[in-house]
Amino acid sequence: MRICQCWDDGNLDDIRLCELLRRHRATASFNLNPGLMRAERYHGWDYRGSKPVWKLSAPEAPAVYQGFDIASHAFNHPHLPQLDDATLARELRDGRDRLEQMFGHPVTGFAYPFGDHDERVMAAVRAVGHVYARTCANTDDVMACPDRMAQATSCHHQDPEFWAHYARARAADGVFWFWGHSYEFMGEDDWAQFAAKLERIGADRSARWVRLPELFAV
Ligand SMILES: [Zn+2]
Q1: How far is the CA of 32 from the centre of ligand 1 (A)?
Q2: Residue 105 belongs to what domain range?
Q3: How far is the CA of 180 from the centre of ligand 1 (A)?
Q4: How do strand 42-47 and strand 51-55 relate by DSSP bridges?
């Protein structure tokens, strides 16, 4: 079974997450909005009304994500179906171009902000050169999705059925792909639970971490 994961939005907790993932030798892709990254860190909003969510700064991002893959989450995290054609194209092109400048390697993956997409948006994402675009839908057969521009994952990292999804992918020798946001780790218990997941995956001899650009290489 191949395992992959991706994390959205470029938050300060990604620093701790990346350190944890490195210790477990796990691959990961981070879906970023370069238009929301400033010269300095800043407070964005409060998750569940109580946990401050800070955005990483643009200058620190290359070091934070060293060794991981970067994908686009659009330039400014808009609701893409609400944009006119020209603005939509600019969001997609600028998101990808800026990330390629920042990180110095091709960016071919995409994740829809809020999971929002429709046929027009899917065509625009493909036209800019992305090879897959992640939605917020779940599937038990990741590779069987009929359109890579509406790519479902196995589940969210806090899905109560996480291990049931895992077991089904494992039984089929398929792909298990989970996603999330590092700000969802509210406290030490959440971090410990996620570390235990990585431990269990790492101990599974049938599980092999793969990179998303490798999974969807054309
Ligand atoms: Zn997002």
Answers
A1: 8
A2: 2-215
A3: 9
A4: antiparallel
